[in-house]
Amino acid sequence: MSDALLTGRVALVTGAAQGIGKAIAEVLVQRGARVVLADPGTGIDGSGADPKLVEAVAKKIGDGAAAFGDSIATPSGAAAAVDLAVRRFGGLDIVVNNAAILRDAFIFKLEPRDWEAVLRTNLTGAALVTAAAAAVLRDNAKANRGATPYGWGRIVNIGSTAGFYGNFGQVSYASAKAGLLGLTRVTALDMSRSGVTANLVAPFAATRVTETIKPQNDAQAQYKARALSVSPKHVANFVAFLCSPAAQKISGQVFGIRAREVFLFQQPRPVARIVNGAGEWTNDDLAAAVQQSFAANFTPLTTDLESFSSEPIV
Predict the structure, then answer these.
(1) Catalytic site includes residue 150
(2) Is 22 one of the catalytic residues?
């Protein structure tokens, strides 16, 4: 990929002070983009705040980066982050919703405050940033910013396989990440006429989230050990590809990145059908039909940690 492939574009990356978000911001700048790094510097559970963290990262990246140290999980915070990109760099073309916190608990120990905090950051924050940016991206399309027709608009949501597979004790985190799939699909549809794409990337890499995993069995322990060996730059490289001209026609898709492996995930669609043309189903009829036509297609109750416990290609 040419180092100048994203020249002229402006990006906003949330959760950019460390880990995957930091790697994405660095690679986008290396490709020629200018980037606003948004991160209030909270702990992995969303507690505390230290905006100096993101300020230091932006300073290290250089003139192509600007720091935003407030939370994006409020309408005013999301709008302010978008406004900073427009004021500092003259526009906005790329949004990467990466910010996330983690407060694990089994469903029978769910704390409403923890649930609300996780969804507010991981899902509501992404929706608010996307909504604030969408107006700018639509105006870009009307003005044919950068090209005719407009082809610079990109939205990338950083999800998790926990949102598709589930994992023990991650009811809030998995629910928020599953919600990002719906947000991605609707955004892709709503923004298609403006030439703006929206995709979801589920990363496998060494992050603060990975470090907090408490394995429930040997397979999950192997997953954690292997994930901690994977650099987040692989995820960043794929996100940069999605932002490039080569990905203009890719939208509404779900990808997984594990080191040098790239996965395309299927999305929920009907795989089997039963019909009773004679009248209402009885319980016995349903039991027989479900067993005959559905049982072989049921999704196994395995976690994402077990499904991706093989050795990554690093």
Answers:
(1) no
(2) no
How far is 225 from 288, CA to CA, in rounded Å?
A: 44
Helix (H, G, I), strand (E, B) or coil at 244: coil
Choosing from 177, 223, 251, 309, which is the catalytic residue? 177
> How far does Cα 34 stand from its chain's mean position?
20
Q: In angstroms, what CA-CA distances link 104 with 89, 112, 115, 203, 208?
A: 38, 12, 9, 19, 13
Tokens of 253: 């898709």
- Distance from C-alpha of 131 to C-alpha of 21, rounded to nearest angstrom: 20
- Residue 310's Cβ-side half-sphere holds a number of Cα atoms within 13 Å equal to 6
Task: Record the tokens describing residue 16, joined without a space.
Answer: 């950019």
Sorted by where each starts, the structural domains of the chain and their CATH numbers stand as 10-267 (3.40.50.720)
The active-site residue out of 160, 172, 251, 309 is: 160
Catalytic annotation, pick one of 71, 165, 172, 173 = 173
Predicted TM-score (pTM) of this structure: 0.92
Check if 177 is active-site.
yes
pLDDT in tens, 254-311: 999 998 999 999 999 999 999 999 999 999 999 999 999 999 999 999 888 778 877 7
- Our measurement of the distance from residue 299's CA atom to the centroid of its chain's CA atoms, rounded to an integer in Å, reads 23
Residues of the chain with pLDDT under 70: 1-2, 205-216, 219-220, 222-229
